[in-house]
Amino acid sequence: MKLKCLIVDDEPPALSILQSYLEGTGTLELAGACNNAVEAMQFLEQHPVDLIFLDIHMPRLLGTAFIRSLRHPPKLIFTSAHKDYALEGFELDAVDFLLKPFSFERFLRAVNKLTGINASHPQEMPECSHGPFLYFRVDRKMVKVHLDEIVYVESLKDYCRIIRVDQKPLVMKKPISAIEEMLPAHLFVRVHRSFIISILKVTAFTHTEVELSGQEIPIGKLYRHQLTRLTPAGSKPSE
Question: Fewer CB within 10 A of the terminal residue: the chain, N end or C end?
């Protein structure tokens, strides 16, 4: 099910860019677009939404004041050319703060954070017929990757490689820490500074390595505490 979104911005070019970004995701649906917070308030009285993309510095009423006026605000992503508002935005439990101008890739990272928030409630995750998915930029294209396809992620200095079931690996210029933030924590765990693995793909493990899809992945000393996420209560891995 797509997430219904409202865009609130007093700049027509910004509205146009965000609309095109929404159309490019396949997971978000534009419910409406408003030029100011007062219009947005009236819109929400008749049309509930899942997510608001909200500019902060607008005439008549600041975006932050608008959010504080709502009794039950939807999920929120701030969009602003003024970075000084970032701290206040996060104090309002915003999913992310997008500093204008921002790229489509940066936009998707914010959307994927929302996916991570919803990961504890699988029925709310963006899905298609094959289950939950994320988008990654690979060779100038945004590639849809289903979470149940991912076996592990490997860091290659400035790049990362995603190993998938029965498909070619995907290589992208992105730090592994950024991918770790995107992946839902109940399905993936980082076991080494260079590896993130799918919990569901694990077939065996010890204190020093984990096996999945016939591949042995080392477990870093600093990450051994993560073994508790792989082991049922009371079980212990082999020495």
Answer: C
Q: CB of 95 within 8 A of CB of 109?
A: no
Same domain, 134 and 159: yes
Specify the DSSP class assigned to residue 119: T
Shared domain check, 15 and 77: yes
* Alpha helices (H) in the chain, listed in sequence order: 12-23, 37-46, 63-69, 86-91, 104-118, 176-182
Residue 98 in contact with residue 113, Cβ under 8 Å? no
CA distance 97 to 234: 42
Considering the domain architecture, whether residues 112 and 135 belong to the same structural domain is answered as no
Give residue 220's pLDDT band: very low, low, confident or very high (50, 70, 90). Answer: very high
* Residue 194 burial (CB count, 10 A): 16
Q: By residue range, what is the domain housing residue 152?
A: 129-229
Max intra-chain CA distance, the chain: 65
| Per-residue pLDDT at 132 | 73
State the pLDDT confidence band at 210, using cuts at 50, 70 and 90. Answer: very high
Nearest to 81 by CA among 95, 96, 64, 102: 102
Centre a 10 Å sphere on the Cβ of residue 48 and count the other Cβ atoms it contains.
12
Q: What is the dihedral of CA 29, 30, 36, 37, to 10 degrees?
A: -30
Which pLDDT score, from 0 to 100, does residue 191 have? 94
> Residue 196 is inside which H or E element, if any?
strand 195-198
Residues 6+ apart with CB under 8 A from 232: none
SS3 (DSSP) at 124: helix
Output the pTM of the full model: 0.52
Cα 117 to chain center, whole Å? 8
